[in-house]
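Morning run. Coffee first, then this:
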Amino acid sequence: MLELISTYTLGEFIGFCSILAGCIAAIVKFLGYLNEQFHFVETKKTKIDNLNSKLDSLLEKVEKNEEDTQVLKEASISRIKGKIVDRHKEYMELGYIDYRTLDYLQAQFRAYEKMGGNSYVHELMRDLEQLPLKG
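And here it is:
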Protein backbone atom coordinates (compact mmCIF):
# COMPACT_ATOMS: atom_id res chain seq x y z
CA MET A 1 0.00 0.00 0.00
CA LEU A 2 2.84 2.39 0.85
CA GLU A 3 4.43 1.51 -2.42
CA LEU A 4 1.20 2.39 -4.24
CA ILE A 5 0.97 5.75 -2.48
CA SER A 6 4.62 6.54 -3.14
CA THR A 7 4.37 5.60 -6.83
CA TYR A 8 1.48 7.96 -7.65
CA THR A 9 1.16 11.62 -6.85
CA LEU A 10 -1.68 12.93 -4.76
CA GLY A 11 -3.27 14.45 -7.88
CA GLU A 12 -3.10 11.15 -9.75
CA PHE A 13 -4.58 9.32 -6.76
CA ILE A 14 -7.46 11.84 -6.47
CA GLY A 15 -8.04 11.65 -10.24
CA PHE A 16 -8.17 7.87 -10.11
CA CYS A 17 -10.63 7.96 -7.18
CA SER A 18 -12.78 10.52 -9.04
CA ILE A 19 -12.88 8.37 -12.16
CA LEU A 20 -13.67 5.29 -10.06
CA ALA A 21 -16.48 7.14 -8.24
CA GLY A 22 -17.86 8.38 -11.59
CA CYS A 23 -17.84 4.85 -12.98
CA ILE A 24 -19.57 3.50 -9.88
CA ALA A 25 -22.18 6.30 -10.08
CA ALA A 26 -22.76 5.58 -13.79
CA ILE A 27 -23.15 1.85 -13.11
CA VAL A 28 -25.62 2.51 -10.28
CA LYS A 29 -27.56 4.92 -12.49
CA PHE A 30 -27.60 2.40 -15.35
CA LEU A 31 -28.79 -0.37 -13.02
CA GLY A 32 -31.52 1.96 -11.76
CA TYR A 33 -32.54 2.66 -15.35
CA LEU A 34 -32.67 -1.07 -16.11
CA ASN A 35 -34.72 -1.64 -12.99
CA GLU A 36 -37.17 1.08 -14.00
CA GLN A 37 -37.46 -0.40 -17.47
CA PHE A 38 -38.00 -3.90 -16.15
CA HIS A 39 -40.52 -2.68 -13.63
CA PHE A 40 -42.27 -0.66 -16.37
CA VAL A 41 -42.54 -3.73 -18.57
CA GLU A 42 -43.79 -5.77 -15.60
CA THR A 43 -46.37 -3.08 -14.83
CA LYS A 44 -47.55 -3.06 -18.46
CA LYS A 45 -47.83 -6.86 -18.41
CA THR A 46 -49.78 -6.72 -15.17
CA LYS A 47 -52.09 -4.05 -16.57
CA ILE A 48 -52.68 -6.10 -19.71
CA ASP A 49 -53.40 -9.20 -17.62
CA ASN A 50 -55.84 -7.19 -15.48
CA LEU A 51 -57.56 -5.81 -18.58
CA ASN A 52 -57.84 -9.30 -20.08
CA SER A 53 -59.35 -10.56 -16.85
CA LYS A 54 -61.87 -7.70 -16.80
CA LEU A 55 -62.73 -8.31 -20.47
CA ASP A 56 -63.32 -11.99 -19.75
CA SER A 57 -65.58 -11.05 -16.86
CA LEU A 58 -67.50 -8.56 -19.02
CA LEU A 59 -67.93 -11.14 -21.78
CA GLU A 60 -69.37 -13.60 -19.25
CA LYS A 61 -71.80 -10.93 -18.02
CA VAL A 62 -72.83 -10.04 -21.59
CA GLU A 63 -73.47 -13.70 -22.37
CA LYS A 64 -75.51 -14.07 -19.16
CA ASN A 65 -77.47 -10.90 -20.01
CA GLU A 66 -78.16 -12.22 -23.51
CA GLU A 67 -79.48 -15.46 -22.03
CA ASP A 68 -81.63 -13.54 -19.52
CA THR A 69 -82.92 -11.26 -22.28
CA GLN A 70 -83.88 -14.27 -24.38
CA VAL A 71 -85.78 -15.79 -21.45
CA LEU A 72 -87.59 -12.49 -20.80
CA LYS A 73 -88.40 -12.18 -24.50
CA GLU A 74 -89.88 -15.67 -24.58
CA ALA A 75 -91.87 -14.93 -21.42
CA SER A 76 -93.22 -11.70 -22.96
CA ILE A 77 -94.20 -13.49 -26.15
CA SER A 78 -96.03 -16.12 -24.12
CA ARG A 79 -97.77 -13.50 -21.93
CA ILE A 80 -98.97 -11.49 -24.93
CA LYS A 81 -100.11 -14.62 -26.72
CA GLY A 82 -102.06 -15.70 -23.61
CA LYS A 83 -103.65 -12.26 -23.28
CA ILE A 84 -104.75 -12.23 -26.91
CA VAL A 85 -106.15 -15.78 -26.65
CA ASP A 86 -108.10 -14.85 -23.51
CA ARG A 87 -109.43 -11.61 -25.00
CA HIS A 88 -110.30 -13.33 -28.26
CA LYS A 89 -112.50 -15.83 -26.45
CA GLU A 90 -114.10 -13.10 -24.33
CA TYR A 91 -114.90 -10.70 -27.19
CA MET A 92 -115.91 -13.34 -29.70
CA GLU A 93 -118.57 -14.48 -27.19
CA LEU A 94 -119.71 -10.84 -26.78
CA GLY A 95 -119.81 -10.34 -30.55
CA TYR A 96 -118.18 -6.89 -30.39
CA ILE A 97 -115.07 -5.15 -29.06
CA ASP A 98 -114.48 -1.65 -27.75
CA TYR A 99 -111.99 0.65 -29.43
CA ARG A 100 -109.61 0.95 -26.45
CA THR A 101 -109.30 -2.79 -25.99
CA LEU A 102 -108.71 -3.31 -29.70
CA ASP A 103 -106.09 -0.56 -29.72
CA TYR A 104 -104.35 -2.14 -26.70
CA LEU A 105 -104.40 -5.61 -28.25
CA GLN A 106 -103.06 -4.26 -31.56
CA ALA A 107 -100.17 -2.57 -29.73
CA GLN A 108 -99.45 -5.81 -27.86
CA PHE A 109 -99.62 -7.75 -31.11
CA ARG A 110 -97.12 -5.41 -32.80
CA ALA A 111 -94.69 -5.99 -29.92
CA TYR A 112 -95.38 -9.71 -30.18
CA GLU A 113 -94.44 -9.69 -33.86
CA LYS A 114 -91.30 -7.58 -33.29
CA MET A 115 -90.11 -10.09 -30.70
CA GLY A 116 -90.54 -12.89 -33.20
CA GLY A 117 -93.84 -14.30 -32.04
CA ASN A 118 -95.76 -16.17 -34.69
CA SER A 119 -98.59 -18.63 -34.59
CA TYR A 120 -102.34 -18.72 -34.81
CA VAL A 121 -102.41 -15.39 -32.92
CA HIS A 122 -102.43 -13.65 -36.30
CA GLU A 123 -105.77 -15.29 -37.06
CA LEU A 124 -107.12 -14.35 -33.63
CA MET A 125 -106.19 -10.70 -34.19
CA ARG A 126 -107.89 -10.73 -37.61
CA ASP A 127 -111.03 -12.09 -35.93
CA LEU A 128 -110.90 -9.33 -33.26
CA GLU A 129 -110.30 -6.59 -35.85
CA GLN A 130 -113.36 -7.75 -37.81
CA LEU A 131 -115.67 -7.48 -34.79
CA PRO A 132 -118.00 -4.50 -34.65
CA LEU A 133 -116.64 -1.61 -32.52
CA LYS A 134 -118.70 -0.36 -29.58
CA GLY A 135 -118.08 2.38 -27.06
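The chain has one domain: 9-134. Good start to the day.
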